[in-house]
Amino acid sequence: MALASTESVSTSTSTSYDFGPAVGLSCRECGALYDLGPNFACIECFGPLEVAYPWSTGRELAADQVGEALRARIESGPGSIWRYAPLLPVPADVATKPNLAPGWTKLVKADNLAKELGLRSLHVKDDSGNPTHSFKDRVVAIALEAARTFGFHTLSCSSTGNLAGAVTAAAARAGLDACVFIPAGLEEAKIVMASVYGKRLVAIEGTYDDVNRFCSELIGDPIGEKWGFVNVNLRPYYAEGSKTLAYEIAEQLGWRLPDNVVIPVASGSQLTKIDKGFQELIKLGLVEEKPYRIFGAQAAGCAPVSAAFKAGHDVVRPVRPDTIAKSLAIGNPADGPYVLDIARRTGGAVEDVTDEEIVDAVHLLARTEGIFAETAGGVTVGVLRKLVADGRIDPDAETVVLNTGDGLKTLDAVSAGARPTATIRPSLDAYRAAFPDNS
Ligand SMILES: Cc1ncc(COP(=O)(O)O)c(C=O)c1O
Ligand SMILES: [Zn+2]
């Protein structure tokens, strides 16, 4: 039975935790409101839970919690995601605790790429600048706080690679144990990163979806009793970290929303939370209300959400991934149906590009803007290029495209054509011989 959004279903966990402004967990399907706890599914309808705040439950807000006063408080905060602590499920003193303090990455004005694509205004939100070189540091930072609050001694996850590195690094800094799970056969750099922090890294024979199922089993076993799986039993908190991308984009544009955002989709969590972040900014009077379009980007070798979008379906049929964009290789995306809703509601779309187009786009971004993206960034830039070419992105609109990870993690994708222009002896004569017209 669905409950009114201000009624609360009491769960077995205590309500005395300090989660800052968060007031509970609400079901995305039926709206039932629960106490804050390490829970992720509604006991009424099995819908996914997400963090609820006074502004989402229609409660009164004080004058210093909205508009100019809130903006001033944010602007005087640290240069990390913690400047947005008043909008996140974390205690007010979160920045004083040992963590990797991710976020506040560059919003690069990409005039060269814009010119090449025929766009008037384009920015790249470059999350390769995070501590472990992907956007996953944002989500892990919030999940880590929740893990500490609930008294978990081990941080864990199912991962397509980037999350594994972010979790093991965050656990190292916080002094927690970690045990992370990846599908065997990931990129070498991601395996090195996840293991260098001295934590347990377990490769599972199977796809990401097999890994995720295994982690759900572990939670139900005594082995996993005190484990915080950042994207399973801590998923509602973890997911909130992606809102900080929406906040930063708006603040870095001068407290404005862009017209279009192009976002990579694996589980779809990041895309849904960027939309939630934009909605909150409007509700809290931090930006002016305006229409914006959200576009999801997938690799053709793992494009279940794009396929559903194109077919006009509301359900997402799982696929078996086969793409070089391994970080996006989730064949059964938990948030797929919500991605479809958001793309349709905002007038956006979900599109996909082939592996060849991904590699081309990695080169294009590097050549035009000096940004070396991992394959996931190739997916977003490739999809952007396709959307502009098809006339689905207005060339006069203001667009932001996300690069969520660092190209050094997926070197194999571009290493085939990488070699020195020439190899010469250290002498001027040798240089002149190799480049006779010095060009
Ligand atoms: C680099 C990168 N970008 C984007 C994503 C997509 O995230 P989500 O699962 O929230 O859709 C991932 C997921 O692993 C990733 O590693
Ligand atoms: Zn429900």
UniProtKB/TrEMBL annotation:
Superkingdom to which the source organism belongs: Bacteria
The protein's enzyme class: lyase
Molecular function, one GO term: L-serine ammonia-lyase activity
Needed cofactors: pyridoxal 5'-phosphate
Xref: InterPro entries: Ser/Thr_Dehydratase, Thr_synthase-like, TrpB-like_PALP, TrpB-like_PALP_sf
GO biological process, one term: L-serine catabolic process
Tryptophan synthase beta chain-like PALP domain: residues covered: 101-405
Residues modified as N6-(pyridoxal phosphate)lysine: 136
Pfam family, one: PALP
UniProt-listed Enzyme Commission number(s): 4.2.3.1
Assigned keywords, A-Z: Lyase, Pyridoxal phosphate
PANTHER family recorded: L-THREONINE DEHYDRATASE CATABOLIC TDCB (PTHR48078:SF6), THREONINE DEHYDRATASE, MITOCHONDRIAL-RELATED (PTHR48078)
Family, as annotated: Belongs to the threonine synthase family.
Protein name: Threonine synthase
